[in-house]
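Need a sequence for this fold. Nothing fancy.
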């Protein structure tokens, strides 16, 4: 073809119009002599233009005809232009699969397999595929025959003769025939082994479910038995050799490529277990050791090759175990663990292209369907199918899944699987990644029938279907529960009460009857409120089930909803503010403390929907709020009632932020810096208690004296209070100091100071719905025997004459928290020489502190407590770390300004900077201190009351574990880790506090 320079030929224009992306290259190919007889035939151009990739189809055609003799070439080209069925099938395959084009170039006569289809060719089964593989006698000939069969199968697929489910079933049947052929080759190669044993091949996974991909590992399990008169050990050795040879025949790469990997890792004990077991050995393992996921895998088990009777015996024997898995002791925690998406091992840059494991991917549909089968299949045999789509239809027919939801999932799953098939068909490689290249996306879109703008249409459809799966993945577990209790659609099949209870049990609800009552109360009726609840609850129930105590979460939600259901903003907040509903679910189901705080003032739920709502308020902000409230109140009791209400609200804010940070949400993973979490809680609770005391002090003064107390008065925080390290259950350790105002006598000033202390304590402990704040002044000079409050001068005299080493140590944490700021500064100036003595602490004082610590370890540990698990006084716990740090402060604080801090972690960092302790030892102490602090916080959050040891109740222990980052079933790991971390810390304490290094 020649055209004038600068002008495009009419062929070029036609090629462009027919979908070629490189018309110039296509024009050169059409000009080749081998295509002379057909190059101007419009039928050929039309057919090429109808393929997924016209350029690829034309290149493949040229490679075939160039591989043939002249006579063969004319037969092919003549048939191609005269027989539309062949034209569509051959060019359709060539335009979709470069790999099958390569096969046809190596074996050009194989195109004849596409010429005619008898009726049986349209729906071939295992027998037809076995016939197609019958002449294969070695791995190479098996590969050629396999690809020839695959060629006909792919042709039916790309031409639309078969739908997705039929194609997947045919691929599984072809795999079955291939396994049989491979086993026959292995038997022929080792007839003595074949004579000693019976061997059955059980297909698992997608092959077992007759829903295989074009390129997928074929999962199998091998079962063997000795033939009569043969020693079992020798028979199993023979069976193992046969099985291994069969796997190599399929998996190894030869000059004809590979077929697919045969994977036997789903067998008992995985790759560590024997490749072949007897039936009795399989059953012994499943009855004693198997995990829930193994029964989930067995759901698709199907005998496909080898001894058919032995295969049938295996399937029949394991079936009762599969359908009884939901009654096993560990089913619920296993399910909770399995339901959590495992995408951590997917690189971040790939997760959005993952068709299988990414959000809204194929795994979401398959897992949800299989889990519902396990839960309800024990009582309904119609659910006993290995096929995802068949099982989904059966679940809908039985009312276990809503029909509309099932239809949407069916459509989405078919589309995503079709994408996966077309992606794999191109190069016959195992992949689940959507390509990034524009040309690959264009081919993929066109292969799915998208011709106007294939790339844009494909991306839009893919995102839409993935979004449907994401939305329905959790909903299908819970929507039928609501349908069962709401009873709004009489014609719809719905769960029975027994089936609903089974499902709730499987999802972790300990009292399914109560849960159903709560659901009925929340969602029944035709009101707008009930309609919104029915929208919210499917998702909320999933979040509750993801916690350690789903029942408490649902009960708490019902209580909050009962309290706020009539307010216009509550349900709107949960429906419209995405984070609010998930945050509420996490808070309500994580333990008792946060829900108790919320129930006393449910309107605080608004905090959870405010983007900045979980950030702690500063001390200045809190003091401004409480002092303003005190100024507006009519008397001290009403003033402090408001102050305590603020404290309750802020405690809820802090607990909510802590829980959400520790658990994480779908959009924000759990906080990995546990030290930062501990510091935030300690600072927030400290600031809150300081502001509360400031408010109570102001209220007590105003009630009796107006604006001015006869004596200047300051509250000094001690212990964790002064160190900004308060936990939820901590008392407020304080000292009180006063200085009489000018003209006021000492007796009057002391009486005023004692009166205001007494009133503050009374006000902060009045029986109300708000949690009390206990003020503990036992660290004062002379302890409980000494006066409750002293003048600054009295402190000076006492410390100069009577102060002991332990008091200097206690003063390391002293910091003013409320009252007269100047007096507070003067107190700090007074005690600095005591807590940071010039030239450091003397050796006698050091020995005294060590003796005191040793005595405390032996005397103060509660009777019966495990010293390896006591967070405060136990081995490597808070006391060990803090005393070690404080000894360094007492000895070196005079010379190292960085050590002059009330905070343990800051002092430890400063000690490293000063070269007083190796960084590795400091890290060991810090890790143990943070962990022990988190354990105490967790116990308070879970039980609603303080504690220094792990709870004994299994559910509470699990909840503590979840807060600390351990999945259900890993409580033992949590305790082992705690002991290991604190044991290492104690070794550092022994060296740095008691030993020569100190």
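Here you go.
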């Amino acid at each position: 073809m020649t055209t004038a320079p600068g002008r495009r030929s009419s062929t070029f224009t036609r090629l462009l119009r027919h979908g070629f992306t490189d018309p110039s290259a296509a024009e050169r190919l059409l000009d080749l002599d081998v295509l002379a007889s057909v190059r101007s035939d419009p039928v050929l151009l039309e057919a090429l233009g109808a393929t997924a990739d016209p350029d690829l189809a034309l290149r493949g055609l040229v490679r075939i005809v160039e591989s043939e003799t002249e006579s063969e070439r004319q037969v092919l080209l003549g048939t191609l232009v005269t027989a539309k069925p062949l034209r569509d099938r051959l060019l359709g395959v060539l335009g979709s699969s470069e790999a099958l084009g390569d096969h046809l170039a190596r074996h050009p006569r194989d195109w004849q397999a596409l010429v005619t289809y008898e009726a049986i060719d349209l729906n071939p089964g295992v027998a037809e595929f076995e016939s197609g593989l019958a002449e294969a006698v070695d791995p190479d000939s098996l590969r050629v025959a396999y690809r020839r069969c695959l060629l006909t199968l792919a042709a039916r697929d790309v031409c639309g003769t078969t739908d997705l489910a039929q194609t997947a079933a045919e691929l599984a049947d072809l795999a079955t025939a291939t396994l049989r052929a491979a086993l026959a080759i292995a038997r022929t190669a080792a007839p003595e082994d074949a004579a000693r044993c019976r061997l059955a091949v059980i297909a698992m996974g997608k092959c077992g479910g007759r829903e295989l991909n074009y390129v997928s590992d074929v999962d199998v399990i091998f079962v063997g038995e000795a033939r009569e008169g043969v020693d079992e050990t020798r028979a199993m050795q023979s069976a193992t050799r046969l099985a291994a040879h069969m796997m190599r025949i399929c998996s190894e790469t030869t000059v004809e490529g590979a077929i697919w990997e045969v994977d036997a890792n789903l067998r008992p004990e995985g790759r560590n277990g024997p490749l072949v077991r007897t039936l009795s050995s399989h059953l012994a393992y499943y009855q004693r050791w198997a995990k829930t996921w193994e029964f989930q895998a067995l759901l698709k088990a199907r005998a496909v090759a080898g001894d058919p009777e032995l295969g049938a015996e295996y399937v029949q024997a394991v079936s009762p175990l599969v359908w009884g898995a939901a009654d096993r002791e560990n089913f619920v925690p296993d399910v909770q663990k399995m339901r959590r998406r495992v995408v951590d091992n997917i690189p971040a840059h790939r997760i959005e292209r993952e068709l299988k494991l990414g959000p809204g991917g194929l795994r979401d549909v398959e897992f949800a369907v299989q889990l519902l089968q396990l839960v309800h299949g024990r009582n309904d045999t119609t659910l006993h199918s290995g096929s995802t789509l068949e099982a989904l239809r059966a679940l809908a027919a039985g009312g276990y899944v809503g029909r509309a939801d099932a239809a949407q999932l069916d459509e989405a799953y078919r589309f995503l699987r079709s994408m996966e098939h077309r992606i794999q068909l191109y190069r016959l490689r195992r992949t689940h990644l959507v390509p990034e290249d524009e040309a690959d996306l264009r081919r993929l879109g066109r292969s799915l029938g998208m011709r106007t703008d294939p790339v844009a249409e494909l991306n839009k459809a893919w995102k839409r279907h993935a979004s449907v799966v994401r939305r329905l993945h959790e909903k299908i577990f819970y929507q039928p529960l609501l349908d069962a209790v709401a009873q709004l659609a009489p014609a719809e099949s719905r769960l029975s009460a027994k089936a609903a209870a089974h499902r709730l049990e499987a999802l972790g609800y300990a009292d399914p009857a109560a849960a159903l009552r709560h659901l009925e109360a929340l969602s029944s009726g035709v009101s707008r409120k009930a309609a919104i609840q029915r929208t919210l609850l499917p998702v909320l129930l999933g979040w509750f089930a993801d916690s350690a105590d789903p029942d408490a979460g649902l009960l708490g939600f019902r209580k909050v909803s009962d309290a706020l259901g009539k307010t216009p903003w509550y349900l709107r907040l949960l429906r419209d503010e995405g984070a609010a509903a998930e945050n509420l679910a996490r808070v309500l189901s994580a333990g008792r403390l946060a829900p108790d705080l919320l129930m006393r003032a449910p309107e605080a739920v608004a905090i959870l929907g405010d983007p900045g709502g979980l950030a702690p308020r500063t001390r200045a902000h809190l003091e401004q709020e409480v002092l303003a409230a005190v100024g507006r109140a009519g008397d001290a009791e009403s003033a402090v009632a408001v102050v305590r209400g603020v404290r309750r609200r802020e405690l809820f804010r802090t607990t909510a932020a802590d829980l959400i940070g520790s658990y994480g949400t779908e959009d924000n993973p759990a906080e990995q810096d546990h030290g930062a979490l501990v510091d935030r809680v300690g600072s927030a609770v400290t600031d809150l208690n300081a502001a509360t005391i400031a408010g109570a002090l102001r209220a007590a003064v105003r009630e009796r004296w107006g604006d001015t107390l006869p004596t200047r008065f300051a509250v000094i925080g001690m212990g964790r209070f002064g160190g900004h390290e308060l936990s939820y259950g901590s008392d407020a350790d304080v000292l009180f100091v006063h200085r009489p105002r000018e003209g006021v006598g000492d007796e009057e000033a002391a009486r005023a100071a004692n009166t205001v202390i007494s009133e503050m304590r009374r006000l902060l402990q009045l029986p109300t719905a708000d949690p009390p704040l206990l003020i503990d002044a036992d660290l004062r000079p002379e302890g409980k025997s000494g006066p409750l409050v002293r003048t600054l001068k009295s402190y000076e005299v006492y410390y100069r004459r009577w102060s002991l080493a332990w008091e200097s140590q206690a003063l390391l944490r002293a910091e003013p928290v409320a009252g007269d700021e100047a007096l507070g500064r003067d107190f700090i100036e007074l005690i600095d020489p005591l807590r940071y003595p010039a030239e450091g602490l003397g050796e006698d004082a050091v020995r005294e502190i060590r003796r005191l610590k040793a005595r405390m370890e032996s005397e103060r540990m509660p009777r019966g407590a495990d010293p390896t698990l006591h967070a405060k006084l136990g081995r490597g716990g808070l006391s060990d770390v803090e005393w070690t740090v404080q000894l360094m402060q007492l000895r070196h604080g005079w010379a190292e300004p960085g050590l002059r801090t009330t905070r343990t972690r800051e002092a430890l960092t400063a000690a490293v900077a000063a070269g007083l302790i190796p960084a590795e030892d400091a890290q060991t102490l810090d890790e143990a201190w943070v962990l022990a602090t988190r354990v105490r916080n967790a116990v308070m959050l879970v039980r609603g009351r303080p504690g220094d040891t792990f709870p004994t109740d299994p559910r509470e222990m699990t909840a503590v574990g979840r807060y600390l980052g351990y999945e259900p079933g890993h409580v033992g790991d949590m305790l082992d880790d705690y002991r290991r971390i604190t044991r290492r810390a104690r070794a550092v304490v022994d060296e740095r506090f008691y030993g020569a290094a100190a």
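For context: Confidence is low (pLDDT under 50) at residues 487-491.
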